[in-house]
Amino acid sequence: QVQLVESGGGLVQAGSSLRLSCVASGRTSRTYAVTWFRQAPGKEREFVATIRFSNDQTYYDDSVKGRFTASRDGAKNTVYLQMDNLRPGNTAIYYCATQEGGPVPNYRRPGSYNYWGQGTQVTVAS
To answer: What are phi and psi of 88, to 5 degrees?
Structure first.
C-alpha cells in the first residue's frame, strides 16, 4: 500500500504561483513515478505532469508546458508541482497518483493508477 497526501492549494490571482506537494508513505520503494492530474467541475480528470524516479524525466500536458514544473525530493518522499503564471482555466482539484511496479502502459490515463491522494483545491481568480 502507498499513501499520498497533497497540500499547497489555495486561492490566488491570475499570474500568481503556487507550489503543490505530494508526500508519499508506505511501500514507496516499489513506485516508479508520480503523476499529477486535475479535475475541474463538470469535467473529466486530466493529465497534468509526471516525473519518473529513475532519471527524473518529466512529461507535461501541452497546456502547462513552460509554466508548470514537476520535481522531487527523494529524501522526503515528496514530489512537487511548481505552477507559475496561473490562469483561471487552471482552477481545479489537483491530485497526485502513483502505481507500484514498473512504468504504466499509459501514464496520461487516470485508470493506470491505483493510489491517489485526496486532492488539493486550486482556484485562480481573474
So the answer is: -55, -35
Classify residue 63 by its DSSP letter.
T
Chain segment 85-110, per-residue pLDDT in tens:
999 999 999 999 999 988 888 999 99
pLDDT digits (tens, 9 = 90+) for 34-53: 999 999 999 999 999 999 99
Does 126 score more than 90 pLDDT? Answer: yes
Q: Give the chain's end-to-end CA distance (angstroms, integer).
A: 40
Three cell numbers written together for 118: 485526496
Which whole number is the average pLDDT over 64-73? 97
Distance of alpha carbon 12 from alpha carbon 125, whole angstroms: 6
Q: Is the dihedral of CA 122, 86, 63, 108 positive or negative?
A: negative
CA 28 to chain centroid, in Å, comes to 16
The helix/strand/coil state of 92 is strand
Contacts of 24 (CB under 8 A, 6+ apart): 2, 3, 4, 31, 34, 77, 78, 79, 98
49/37 Cα distance (integer angstroms): 7
